[in-house]
User: Fold this.
Amino acid sequence: MARTRSEQYPEIKRNILKRAATVFARVGYASATISDLADAAGLSRGALYHYFASKEAILCAIFDQHLADFLERVDQAMQASRVPVEQLRIVTQAIVELNTSCADEQVVILNDLNQLSATEHARMVALEKKILDRLSDLLIKVDNGGKITPANKRVYTMMYLGVVNYTFAWYNPKGRVAPAQFADIASDVLLHGLLTKGTKASPR
Assistant:
């Protein structure tokens, strides 16, 4: 007879992924052991293997969960308004909220993509591209100064993500500037650049 899953199965899996993300973020994926992950989750090695077949399976699940959540939040935020400027503000707020609540996952996403197998690496890159495409399209809609072109749109998108994605390295969400305020500041800085027409350089 097949072993039945407990009612706590989904919750236990989420806890494993949360604890594993903390371990990977602190010591690195390569240095972390199954025993480290089991201890962090409060499980035996055997119990951990009941939920995930390998360390890489745990890493893949962290990527899957975080990137899917990221994309879902971006899509939901964009549906909250039809005005591009408002969409950008809401999207920025959603990204900041997610990243400040999942700082360890964000470290793993940024640092450990190259630890995946070739197949999983390609799949995660495709998910990341889907997110980048959404954000690039939004920035193009916001831009009324004609600054973003097909050639440079990824530069603008990565600059934007550089502001909101690397907060784990320096930003304290419990400090004097709350996440909502930080999101507003980031939006203001970007919007000032995109909504202001650039000046042409004088010929020399």
